[in-house]
Specification:
Layout (H helix, E strand, L loop, with lengths): L7 E5 L4 H12 L3 E6 L2 H13 L4 E5 L5 H14 L5 E4 L14 H29 L2 E6 L12 H21 L4 E8 L6 H12 L20 H11 L11 E4 L7
Parallel strand pairs: 1-2, 1-4, 2-3, 4-5, 5-6, 6-7
Helix pairs in contact: 1-2, 1-7, 3-4, 4-5
Bound molecules: nicotinamide-adenine-dinucleotide (NAD).
Nicotinamide-adenine-dinucleotide binds next to helix 1 and helix 6.
Length: 256
């Protein structure tokens, strides 16, 4: 549908959840896929799904918070599949905690995984994109990067930083033919992060994501493919005139 045939896409956090949805959707659009994740078994499962759809796949065990490991991983992708045309920064963690109680190490870890990773991947893939005067970077942020919530200061701040980084980088590389955009998911089920969040909600006597679905204007929670379809669009030439955007995919839950 988006004519991505033969492009090489790297997806971080592609072992499960939204990342797996993005990897399999981009494969259906014709991309060869590198799945970069700490969860190597899950990354291999996603790779098998990609191969079943007729595309090449490479699973790599990489901690995206580690810049040297990311650089080595991208070099391996280059050697195996070719230079990266599309980089999707999706790996992240979440966590709750009031600011007054938050351990500095937990704050740092949130930024290392959610924010530093986006910088590391961009640094690793940009030289080839600049040399070829083209490429797409899609960063998965969150609607929590646009609005703060109690107990989510670290996560929200890490995602707000991803949005600001997206805008700055987009302006920097626009003259080089490279598009950089962000996607801000709302309440997406079928992911490990959501299962953990729902478990914490239940423990505190709070409603789960599905139980809050009536608050979403479109009347349902999101699925990984709701995000993946928008990523595929942003990775395509259909979105050639879009850069520096942070697109909400929330069923109308957040509109700014
Ligand atoms: N699920 C939601 O409702 C929701 C809402 C808004 C934003 N998001 C964002 O969407 C993205 C995907 O979320 P998800 O719900 O699919 O999460 P998930 O927990 O199901 O998947 C995250 C993946 O990232 C990997 N990962 C974590 N730390 C890593 C590290 N240091 N190095 C390499 N890989 C690492 C995990 O192993 C996992 O495979 C995240 O950026 C998240 O913040 C999710």
């Amino acid at each position: 549908m988006y004519h991505l045939d033969g492009r090489v896409a790297l997806v971080t956090g592609g072992a499960v959840g939204i990342g797996r949805g993005i990897a399999t959707r981009l494969a259906q659009e014709g991309c060869d896929i590198a799945i970069v994740d700490l969860d190597f078994a899950g990354a291999q499962e996603t790779a098998a799904m990609v191969q079943a759809s007729g595309r090449r796949a490479l699973a790599l065990a990489v901690d995206v918070a580690d810049g040297a490991a990311v650089a080595a991983g991208v070099a391996q992708v280059r050697a195996t599949l070719g230079p990266v045309d599309i980089a999707v920064n999706n790996a992240a963690i979440t966590g709750v905690g009031r600011v007054v109680d938050l351990e500095p190490a937990a704050w740092r870890r949130m930024f290392a995984i959610n924010t530093d990773s986006v910088f590391h991947v961009a640094q690793a893939v940009l030289p080839d994109m600049i040399a070829r005067r083209g490429g797409k970077i899609v960063n998965i942020a969150s609607w929590f990067g646009k609005i703060g919530k109690p107990s989510y200061a670290a996560y929200s701040a890490s995602k707000a930083a991803v949005i600001a980084f997206t805008q700055s980088l987009a302006a920097e590389v626009a003259p080089l033919g490279i598009n950089v955009n962000a996607v801000c998911p709302g309440s997406i089920v079928g992911t490990r992060m959501r299962e953990d969040a729902d478990r914490m909600s239940r423990e505190q006597g709070l409603p789960t994501a599905r139980e809050r679905a009536h608050l979403i204007p479109l009347g349902r929670v999101g699925e990984p493919d709701d995000i993946a379809r928008v990523v595929a669009f942003l990775a395509s030439d259909e979105a050639a005139y879009m850069t520096g955007q942070a697109i909400n995919v929330t069923g109308g839950l957040w509109m700014n």
